[in-house]
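STRUCTURE:
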């Protein structure tokens, strides 16, 4: 099992950085490509040179026979003299005439001499059958590609051989020089590629290094660190995405801390009440015990409702994202109206209907609208009309928006409470019903946000309040698609 200290040290000092790995991969691929290209070019050029030498030597055989046949020599020496004079050696080539196993004739001006005892002896041995021989040998310190051509003259019992040979090292020297030049150029190319790759990889990976350093500085108490976005490439897009993730993380942590603070504040009061009454209760008084018990149960019920609402608030976003379905908005509003009618004796009416189908979580929207309906019953007049409705409008960019509303004609909302009406644990100061947990409108706002929308409130003309859930309707569908 690894020691935690050694694991942390390994994380702080990796063996090879990503920059080094990228550069090593680039150099390895580049070097392999250059090596394959250079080796292929060398082999092709070498084989082409050798083929050309073989072609010249093969042509030399025909030239020797033609010159020997056309000469008017009556003996072998005269015929070979004519061949030596008529078949001139090329660059890096030399010729030699052998008579009866000894070097006899050779040109005056050649790049090198062939009068080598080993080569002469080889020519006698290999041409004993009278066949032309093509081969390679090292003689006098040179690598030679040779051809042995037997020559004879009728009436002359002497045996002769014409030798033509190329110095292969000299012939292949241009190919070797080109290969050495290619090697130098390849090394220089690798150096340039390495330098450019190091700089470019460093620039591209700079945001990632910044991300690593920022991640190391981020703690649960401080997630304000952000990475500067430079450029417009994929890595820059990654940096922007990470910054957006940090924004969401910061918002979630801030909301979590706020929720814990709010929950602690809300639970402190009932706990204090229960503890105080228990401490002051007279156990000998049945009436005092019964009253304390009723008060304690009432406070515990209120805390239980608070816990349920907190759990519901925490589950809203996850369930909405998982349960969106194409929903007939007109049918949804009608179902909400029918359910809301059981809440009170008010007159529940639908003032407008959006006859569209939009992908939403119908259950959560029903929950939100019924919460707004219950809020209207609690804080509105005891009788009268409560309106529900829906409509499709367009925002400033021309994109469709779905609006769902609940409108009452009660006393309305005070100006000081209006900006924070959807905050957690905010309770209205006007109303007839019992005080709730203060989380109902916060749940409505969370359901709207989980749909990518907002919840807002405005004063109703003539008195009262209008609560509106505003959602995007970009994926609006034809109602016939669901009704068919």
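SEQUENCE:
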């Amino acid at each position: 099992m690894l020691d935690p200290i050694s694991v942390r040290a390994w994380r702080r000092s990796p063996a090879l950085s990503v920059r080094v790995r990228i550069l090593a991969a680039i150099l390895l691929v580049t070097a392999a490509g250059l090596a394959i290209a250079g080796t292929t070019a060398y082999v092709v050029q070498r084989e082409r040179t050798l083929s050309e030498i073989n072609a010249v030597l093969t042509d030399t055989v025909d030239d020797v026979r033609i010159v020997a046949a056309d000469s008017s020599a009556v003996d072998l020496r005269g015929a070979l003299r004519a061949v030596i004079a008529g078949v001139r050696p090329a660059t890096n080539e030399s010729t030699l005439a052998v008579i009866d196993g000894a070097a006899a004739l050779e040109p005056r001006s050649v790049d090198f001499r062939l009068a080598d005892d080993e080569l002469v002896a080889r020519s006698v041995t290999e041409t004993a059958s009278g066949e032309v021989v093509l081969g390679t040998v090292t003689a006098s310190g040179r690598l030679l590609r040779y051809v042995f051509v037997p020559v004879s003259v009728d009436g002359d019992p002497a045996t002769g051989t014409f030798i033509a040979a190329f110095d292969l090292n000299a012939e292949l020297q241009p190919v070797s020089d080109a290969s050495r030049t290619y090697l130098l150029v390849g090394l220089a190319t690798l150096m340039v590629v390495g330098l450019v790759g190091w700089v470019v990889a460093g620039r591209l990976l700079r945001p990632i290094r910044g991300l690593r350093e920022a991640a190391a500085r981020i703690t649960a108490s401080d997630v304000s660190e952000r990475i500067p976005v430079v450029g417009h490439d994929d890595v820059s897009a990654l940096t922007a995405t990470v910054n957006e993730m940090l924004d969401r993380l910061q918002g979630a942590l801030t909301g979590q801390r706020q929720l814990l603070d709010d929950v602690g504040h809300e639970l402190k009061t009932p706990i204090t009440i229960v503890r105080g009454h228990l401490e002051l209760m007279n156990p000998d008084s049945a009436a005092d015990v019964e009253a304390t018990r009723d008060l304690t149960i009432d406070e515990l019920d209120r805390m239980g409702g608070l816990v349920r609402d907190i759990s519901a608030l925490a589950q809203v976003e996850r369930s909405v994202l998982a349960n969106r379905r194409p929903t007939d908005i007109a049918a949804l509003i009608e179902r909400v109206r029918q359910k809301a009618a059981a809440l009170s004796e008010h007159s529940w009416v639908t003032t407008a209907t959006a006859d569209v189908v939009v992908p939403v979580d119908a259950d959560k929207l029903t929950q939100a609208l019924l919460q707004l309906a219950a809020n209207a019953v609690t804080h509105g007049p005891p009788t009268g009309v409560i309106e529900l409705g829906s409509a499709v409008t367009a925002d400033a960019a021309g994109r469709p928006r779905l609006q769902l509303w609940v409108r009452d004609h009660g006393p309305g909302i005070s100006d000081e409470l209006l900006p924070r009406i959807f905050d957690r644990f905010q309770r209205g100061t006007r109303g007839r019903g019992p005080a709730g947990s203060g989380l109902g409108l916060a749940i409505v706002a969370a359901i709207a946000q989980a749909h990518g929308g907002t919840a807002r409130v405005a004063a109703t003309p003539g008195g009262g309040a209008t609560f509106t859930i505003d959602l995007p309707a970009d994926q609006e569908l034809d109602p016939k698609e669901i009704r068919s």
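REMARK: The chain is about 55% helix and 15% strand.
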